[in-house]
Amino acid sequence: MHHKFGIAIAGLTLGVAAFAQTKWDLPTAYPASNFHTENLTQFAGDVDKGSGGKLKITVHSNASLFKAPEIKRAVQGGQAQLGEILLVNYQNEWQMFGADGIPFLADSYDAAWKLYQAQKPVLEKKLAEQGIALLYTVAWPPQGIFVKKEIASAADLKGVKWRAYSPATARIGELVGAQPVTVQQAELSQAMATGVIESYMSSGSTGYDTKTYEYIKNFYDTQAWLPKNAVLMNKKAFDALDKPTQDAVLKAAADAEKRGWELSRKKNLEYLDLLKKNGMTVHVPSAALKADMKKVGDTMIKEWLDKSGAEGQAVVDSYKKM
Ligand code: PCA
Q1: CATH ID of 143-224+280-321, from 3.20.20.80, 3.10.129.10, 3.40.190.170, 3.40.630.30
Q2: What is the pLDDT of residue 3?
Q3: What are 156-204's pLDDT values in tens digits?
Q4: How far is CA 253 from CA 142, 177, 201, 257, 316, in A?
Q5: By CB distance 3.0 to 4.6 Å, which of 252, 297, 308, 312 could disulfide with 103?
Q6: What percent of the chain has pLDDT over 70?
Q7: How far is the CA of 244 from the centre of ligand 1 (A)?
Q8: pTM of the full predicted structure?
Q9: Is the fold of 23-139+226-272 the same as that of 143-224+280-321?
Q10: What pLDDT, on a 0 to 100 scale, did the predictor assign at position 20?
Q11: Higher pLDDT, 12 or 79
């Protein structure tokens, strides 16, 4: 009896050693049903398959493991091996993280892709210095204005309680004379329900995910910019994997990037339809509102170039040449 038990344990230990399985965590701030998160889940499945079950990635949605502004540090410190961040959330750390949050610098999918190509070398370099690898990015759909009352121009936003998700969206609020308050997406529905905010800029995707149509009835489709989510990886954790598993991660990431950008583009129009079906009016912004927001963008690109110096100018120049 005793002898047999001993052999069984030895056999089990051997089995585990021969089939070392690694478990990674992947925190994100967005809900499970969001298209970025669905893409992450597919990425995790592809890594599982591609690595022959050697690397298991658990996606933690809706800021359940780390809050949005904490995810980058968690990856850097190895508390999470992977993490999805909103790049523009980190603009105060380094201005280049905010390049894709400037209104009207890149306001279509094609332009946003080009801006990404211009940003990518400096992003990769900066992150590498922090022990982080950039696996892939995906753009959010174009950003428009959700607001309770109808607005004819930016003047109608004066004094309005304005939700910001980043330094740049807070700055837009200031420039139009609204009252900015920073609220991450995980707390957005509650902020609307309690009247803490009555307006914000974001995508139809977030408008739908947070059931904004229950509180706010107007969306002005300004298509002002397309901020990106980025999936980051702790470099040490990657270096500890065997070569075939590393290859599986990189292959799945490349596929996720391609799939994610296509998904974003395709779902943008679906989200606007879903907002309409749920009682929201999707407005084409008036000429006055467009001109006002363009002016906000002009101010913000100037401010950003002042802060980011030669590095920022080089990114903008390389983007404009594409
Ligand atoms: N949704 C995120 C960021 C950009 C977007 O479209 C949010 O509103 O928090």
Answers
A1: 3.40.190.170
A2: 46
A3: 999 999 999 999 999 999 999 999 999 999 999 999 999 999 999 999 9
A4: 23, 41, 29, 6, 26
A5: 297
A6: 94
A7: 35
A8: 0.94
A9: yes
A10: 83
A11: 79
Q: What is the domain partition of the chain in residue ranges?
A: 23-139+226-272, 143-224+280-321
CATH level 3 topology of 23-139+226-272: D-Maltodextrin-Binding Protein; domain 2 (3.40.190)
The single residue listed with the structure tokens 């607005």 is: 151
- Output the pLDDT for position 13: 52
Residue nearest to atom 9 of ligand 1 (CA): 185
- Identify the helix (H) or strand (E) that includes residue 2: helix 2-18
Pick the closest to residue 221 from 141, 150, 283 (CA basis).
Answer: 283
Instruction: Decide: 68 and 284 in contact? Cβ < 8 Å.
Output: no
What is the mean pLDDT of the segment spanning 84-107?
Answer: 98
Sign of CA dihedral 33, 37, 38, 44: negative
The residue count of the chain comes to 322
The per-residue pLDDT for 12 is 52
**Which of 35, 61, 162, 206 has the most ligand 1 atoms within 8 A of CB, as the residue to mutate?**
206
